[in-house]
């Protein structure tokens, strides 16, 4: 495992973990790991995520529910060959489990009491799952404007406390921010906690081991985008350690309905673009419908990773997402719409037809009953089995569209946060225009 320091992406000020924003300038923080040796990047006798523990930041604990080491399957679609990485088969059915396994391990190291986060979706389920496994408490802040149904019921079933916050997602985000510290580790899965991104590095090693080669392109569904950046960092580890000679182009995919990173990618000034209001239309891909409201500059980390890899940000529309979901279902793969978006993106110009491409399937379809309805045209209004376990409201309807609605309406925290950052071009965006 690798020792690390924490520093600001803008002014480079160091600080101690856990920390969430630079105490000097308010910018996001990142971990700086000591370089990985070739041995660090080779698998160990550990299992799952911890099989590549040498690539991870150092922790003394190693909590696991069997996350990581997810299957990689070949997929032939529309006459082209690709592979899909089934992150949907992690213990709580999404890629977030990798981050939460690392987060609870770090929390135990430091004697923290529990996890706190803002989420209505995969992260809430994952945090509750891993807090339960580690014997920690879990507080989830959820906006009253959300309709999170089944996923929050699942979190309650694991013993998490779900606290409703008047307003929209940005209000829940702010509430989680106020609750962090004093024994609570904030694991809101944007870039707020700089540790979480690091948990995705081993995905690069898993892909190379399974493929026997470095992929040409890796397609990743992105909201804020820590998954894309984490996988990219893993590939740079392998290259810098001398185990590989190439790196893949990282392609981030968003839904047309909410695509602030795609908009910024095409703009001359990334940061200015990210700070412009985002109009969010209804989308099935709620897991990536993130307007970044209140933490706009975090998007720069994802854009920089795509740029450094020679990749791109692309958007796909709702019919393409739906069709990809149906095609995957016909092949026995039941995934959330955000994951289907990655497969839809295989048909875009960002992924050359003859390239060795991998699409990361981020989450399972089983957590959103209306996903099933979209696939078969049925009625999703069946009571949730989880509501029985948790004693919650059985009217657990879908989260589809809830995130989109909450992001579209109401005043945001953006204006309050904008002044926290210096006006000059960021170190992250520097180089974009050259
Ligand atoms: Zn700073």
Automatic annotation (TrEMBL):
<dbReference type="InterPro" id="IPR000634">
    <property type="entry name" value="Ser/Thr_deHydtase_PyrdxlP-BS"/>
</dbReference>
<dbReference type="InterPro" id="IPR001926">
    <property type="entry name" value="TrpB-like_PALP"/>
</dbReference>
<feature type="domain" description="Tryptophan synthase beta chain-like PALP">
    <location>
        <begin position="63"/>
        <end position="363"/>
    </location>
</feature>
<dbReference type="Pfam" id="PF00291">
    <property type="entry name" value="PALP"/>
</dbReference>
<keyword id="KW-0663">Pyridoxal phosphate</keyword>
<dbReference type="InterPro" id="IPR050147">
    <property type="entry name" value="Ser/Thr_Dehydratase"/>
</dbReference>
<feature type="region of interest" description="Disordered">
    <location>
        <begin position="407"/>
        <end position="434"/>
    </location>
</feature>
<dbReference type="InterPro" id="IPR036052">
    <property type="entry name" value="TrpB-like_PALP_sf"/>
</dbReference>
<keyword id="KW-0456">Lyase</keyword>
<protein>
    <submittedName>
        <fullName>Threonine synthase</fullName>
    </submittedName>
</protein>
């Amino acid at each position: 495992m690798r020792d690390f320091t924490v520093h600001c992406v803008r002014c480079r000020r160091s600080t101690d973990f856990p920390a969430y924003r630079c105490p000097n300038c308010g910018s996001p923080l990142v971990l700086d790991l000591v370089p990985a040796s070739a041995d660090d990047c080779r698998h160990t006798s550990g299992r799952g995520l911890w099989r590549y523990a040498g690539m991870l930041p150092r922790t003394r604990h190693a909590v696991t529910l069997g996350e990581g080491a997810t299957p990689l399957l070949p997929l032939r679609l529309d006459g082209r060959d690709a592979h899909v990485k089934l992150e949907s088969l992690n213990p709580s059915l999404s890629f977030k489990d990798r981050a939460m396994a690392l987060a609870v391990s770090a929390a135990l190291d430091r004697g923290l009491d529990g996890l706190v986060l803002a989420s209505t979706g995969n992260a809430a389920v994952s945090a509750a799952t891993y807090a339960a496994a580690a014997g920690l408490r879990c507080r989830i802040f959820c906006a009253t404007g959300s309709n999170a149904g089944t996923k929050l019921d699942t979190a309650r079933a694991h013993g998490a406390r779900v606290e409703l916050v008047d307003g929209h997602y940005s209000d829940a985000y702010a509430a989680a921010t106020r609750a962090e510290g004093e024994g609570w580790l904030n694991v809101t899965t944007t870039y707020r906690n700089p540790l979480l991104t690091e948990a995705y590095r081993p995905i690069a090693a898993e892909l190379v081991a399974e493929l026997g080669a470095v992929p040409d392109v890796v397609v990743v569904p992105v909201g804020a985008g820590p998954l894309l950046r984490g996988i990219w960092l893993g590939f740079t580890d392998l290259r810098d350690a001398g185990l590989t000679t190439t790196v893949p182009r990282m392609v981030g995919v968003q839904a047309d309905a909410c695509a602030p990173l795609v908009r910024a990618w095409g703009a001359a000034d990334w940061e200015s673009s990210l700070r412009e209001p985002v109009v969010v239309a209804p989308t099935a891909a709620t897991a990536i419908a993130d307007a970044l409201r209140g933490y706009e500059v975090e998007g720069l980390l994802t854009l920089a990773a795509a740029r450094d890899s020679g990749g791109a940000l692309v958007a796909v529309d709702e019919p393409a997402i739906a069709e990809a979901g149906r095609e995957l279902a016909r092949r026995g793969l039941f995934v959330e719409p955000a994951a289907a978006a990655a497969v839809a993106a295989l048909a875009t110009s960002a992924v050359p037809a003859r390239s060795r491409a991998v699409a990361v399937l981020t989450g399972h379809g089983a957590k959103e009953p209306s996903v099933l309805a979209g696939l078969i045209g049925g009625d999703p209004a069946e009571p949730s089995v989880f509501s029985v376990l948790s004693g919650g409201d059985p009217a657990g309807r879908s989260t589809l569209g809830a995130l989109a609605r909450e992001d579209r309406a109401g005043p945001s925290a953006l204006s309050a946060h904008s002044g926290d950052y210096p006006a000059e071009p960021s170190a992250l965006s520097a180089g974009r225009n050259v």
